[in-house]
Design goal:
The strands form four sheets. Strands 1, 4, 5, 8, 9, 10, 11, 12, 15 and 18 form a ten-stranded antiparallel β-sheet that branches. The chain is 22% helix and 33% strand. With 303 residues, it is of the alpha+beta class. The protein is built from seven helices and 18 strands. The longest helix is centred in the middle third of the chain and has 16 residues. A hairpin with a 6-residue loop joins strand 6 and strand 7.
Amino acid sequence: MSQIISNKSEILFIYDIENANPNGDPLNENRPRFDNDTSTVLVSDVRLKRTIRDYWFEYKGYNGKNDKDIFIREIIDNDGNVYDAKTRAIDFKNDKDIVINKCIDIRVFGGVLPLKKDPITFTGPTQFQMGRSLNKTEILTEQGTGAFASKEGKAQKTFRTEYKVPYAIIGFNGIINDKAAKYSKMTEEDKELLLEGLWEGTKNLISRSKYGQTPLLLLTIDYNESFYIGNLRQKIKLITDKNEKEIRSVNEYKLDLSEIFNEIKSIKNKIKRIYIKKDDRLVILNNNQVLKIINNEINVNEI
């Protein structure tokens, strides 16, 4: 296992979604979570963490068939019963060291381990704020018919209602706390898999309700002391000639990160490393100049 994380990091992640439901609310007919006062879409940190967990499970081999696993995942026994957390703990012999060594999601996100003799709660080093769309949007209602009739012998098919947003640019703030990492034993390798899961996991969300999501920007700031800027998403300005609710493509706007980069300049002695990964189509403005950095580490002194 690689070195345990020893530096605090800050994350800004932005993706877009077209004609889909970014995060349905099961208590509201699975409508997209929505702030009516600001006409913006909300996405929970739980949804984002599930995206990352699913990527680790499906594409990185954390499936329990070797020494790598995901603690919080759906497992159904031969009788159709879904494992609860206590049953899951039995899989690891109620041993916290086995859980930590095998389960990347506990090391990264933390969790409650209902171990038989000594229940333990790990505060996750990686935390995300509730995601929110940068643009104003709206909820669309679509009616459709099901594939089968409502009852055997009936000719009439069932009807279904779906709720979607036409287009949203969704931003997340994240933090990796080096102090908490000492207890959960999150490593530098785990961090790389976290960032990979954010980007590639979003690209690989191809379920019916999530297909249409594309990662646009991933900014990671590694600090050399216990400090972080905070609220990176809130410092972004959306530049467009359109009514925000009419935006339908990444080609119809630009992002101004001047406020973020000005803050970086003012505290650059506190920064160890900055890394940007972005979609080629996304135009970023920095002091009215296009930031021409793609998938590259930034020299702080050149900002």
